[in-house]
Amino acid sequence: MSEEQKANFQDRLARINGPQSAQSMPQNMVTQPSQSKARKVHKEPMLGNFGYPLSIIGAFLLGMICVLISRWARFHIAIGEPTAISYDALVIEGLLAGGIAFIMRHAFNLEDPIHISAKGFGITAMIGLMHNLVWYFPTAFELIFSPEWVELVLDQTEINSFMIGPIAVVFGQ
Prior knowledge:
Number of strands: 2
Transmembrane segments: 50-73, 85-104, 116-137
Oligomer: single chain
Number of helices: 6
Order of helices and strands: HHHHHHEE
Keywords: Membrane, Transmembrane, Transmembrane helix
Strand order of the largest sheet: 1-2
Distance between the termini: 92 Å
Radius of gyration: 31 Å
Region (Disordered): 19-38
Helix content: 55-70%
Structural class: mainly alpha
């Protein structure tokens, strides 16, 4: 290395190190960055703290929506014929909803174990409680499914209950 290159190198080191003098350092010593520079502290905005709990609630609701989609798909696969509530139907809907939730987890980036659990709880809750929504909003479900399907659900279920297959566990009177 020529003396001019060494001088240019020492000048660059002096600019990088700030107040330290490159002239006082030995020629063969590699310098470390200055510790006097303050670290930048990354502060998240106040609303950023609500994102995680809201994502868990969103995962729960996504699981519920997956059950609604699976029942809608099963209804239309059966050529619009309403089918009775049975264990087999609930297992098929649960598996179909789980498949839909698996696909949606990649779309919404909900891959943490807590989000997967929240979707599972949402699927379970909606399988057992969706008939209550039919009781509260029959006209909306008549538009989505059919009046015959709504009539069958209202005949086979009780309001304010949790369905475990064809068995209704009433939780409010």
